[in-house]
Amino acid sequence: MSNSSTKVVLVTGSATGVGRAAALRFAQNGYHVVVNYSRSEADARETLKLVTDCGVRGLLVKADVGVDAEVRGMLQTIEQEFGRLDVLVNNAACTWFIDHADFEALTEDKWDRILQVNLKGPFFVTRAATPLLKKSGGGAIVNVSSVAGIGGEGSSIAYAASKGALNTMTRSLARVLGPEIRVNAVCPGPIDTRWLRAVMTEEQLNARTANYPLQRPAYPEDIADTIYYLAAGTTLTTGQCLVVDGGRTM
What is the pLDDT of residues 97-140, one digit of tens each? Predict the structure, then answer.
């Protein structure tokens, strides 16, 4: 077990996109980084290399955040390897792109998986991480939510519902974990990632955001900026759901 005083962050779902950008942002600021993934091992290993190229330690852990036993095993590994945890970023998520009017396409198994990963997952990881966060002197939890959880739009009704519940849970956790641990969420609008590009061209994405005050979608680095701010750039912010959407929801 390391006795280093260097801070440690766990970023769930950090193989690609926002998770990777967040992992790199913390690494660039001197944090050791735990890279978590459930399926995309090759991408996760690439994230790990980018992290260690920053001169910090990286740890790769495969775990499905929706499976409590795997989550508890992941936190045990972190404690064995580092002996501390200072920041948790609950980023892992899943969805299906289903028209909101197509009720039959949103099957029970899809509902269950979305809620398992997007809602139960952050709870499971938070629960398992809390003792180590407190042992390290407290810290911060940042949940990656969505404006879908505020306005009810998004890739599917189940996805929007899961993010709305995550916003509520963020506030509940902030109350129960304070004053030692701060808990906040970031609520992005459309993000230009591989995930969204699977169903939307660049032209479609630009057209969708053309009427926003800032006239562009978010990039993973924009959201990483906010995650890092909520984790390390403020000491009196908790229970907040910070919207980062180019002014769409004003």
Answer: 899 999 999 999 999 999 999 999 999 999 999 999 999 998 99
Q: Is 219 part of the annotated catalytic residue set? A: no
Look up the pTM and report it: 0.94
Residue bearing tokens 């992992």: 23
Number of domains in the chain: 1
Question: What pLDDT digit, counting tens, does each position of 42-55 carry?
Answer: 999 999 999 999 99
Is 97 part of a structural domain of the chain? Answer: yes
The owner of tokens 């509902």 is: 111
C-alpha distances in Å from residue 206, one per residue of 142, 212, 244? 28, 10, 17
Inside any domain, residue 202: no
Strand partners, 62: 37
Determine which one of 159, 212, 219, 228 is catalytic. 159
Domain CATH code at residue 45: 3.40.50.720
Radius of gyration of the chain (CA): 17
